[in-house]
Amino acid sequence: MATASDLLGTWRLIAMRAWSPDGTERRPIGDKPIGFAVFDTTGRVFFQISKSVAEGASADEVAKSFMAYFGKVTVNGDQLSTAVESGNNREDIGTTQTRTITLDGDTLTIGIPGKIQATLRREAKS
To answer: pTM for the whole thing?
Structure first.
């Protein structure tokens, strides 16, 4: 089981998958999304993700797909909860977002089983 200290650092988004109610898998922000999650020593996480211009997305498509939020984070077993302080989706502000996590070496998955899943890889320290 991961702890909050296991997550400290910068994580690069390498995949985002979602599933329709009928079980069909889709890639809501493309096959090569771009983004980061940063877990800091104050107990906060910062998420920013979007479609990638490297995949051919226009600047308008990137802006429309952009998702960002930050807040205080807690880890309890395989659950990561973020008390959202601010973000670009006003419905999330002031809520607690709870997601299932799996940490396997330098690969982190975060999501809601059967609905949506982000896969991130730890960035090497320089």
So the answer is: 0.93
